């Protein structure tokens, strides 16, 4: 199994690199936008982040299952659309666009926090409120995107269509497992650690 995964990643490294580069571009654009914000915009960002931190400091995290449920169903809805789009030539660019948008959102949030808070608060807040579970979520998107690209290529190469459909379904299910793990991580690990460390914010 390990050998198969290693060979699969090696053979499709270019496709994964493309997805990663789109992600990096989204992050870079977000950094540029934050850095070019005027003082009024930065003050608004700081006020928003400060309010978020105050809410965390003044409350206890006791609704883990609710967070898990909301996270999973929100991600699941997006994922189903992505699975459909990634299986078509026309839809694949929209998946790349989704990755760029997600990267921009993460980058903008992270840069805004680091620009308005001290380093310790920024690192704690970013790592425990948005980083780890989003990495797992993005892995699921990368998996289904690359699988979709391979699936569409196989149609033009006249490969065994039933086998390729089966393979795409399998990788889509692996991505779904990643979605489940991402939501678990968000509800029971990431945010939980954020509340445990709230006194250091």
Describe how the helices and strands are arranged.
Layout: H1 2-11, H2 13-35, H3 39-57, H4 64-86, H5 92-116, H6 119-156, H7 161-196
Helix pairs in contact: 2-5, 2-6, 3-5, 4-6, 4-7, 5-6, 6-7
Structural account:
The protein is an all-alpha fold and 201 residues long. The protein has helices spanning 2-11, 13-35, 39-57, 64-86, 92-116, 119-156, 161-196.
Search tags:
mainly alpha, 7 helices, single chain, 201 residues
What is this structure, in a nutshell?
This protein is an all-alpha fold.
- Describe the main β-sheet briefly: none
Provide the gyration radius in Å: 19 Å
Query: pLDDT average, as an integer?
Result: 87
Along the chain, the helix and strand elements come as: HHHHHHH
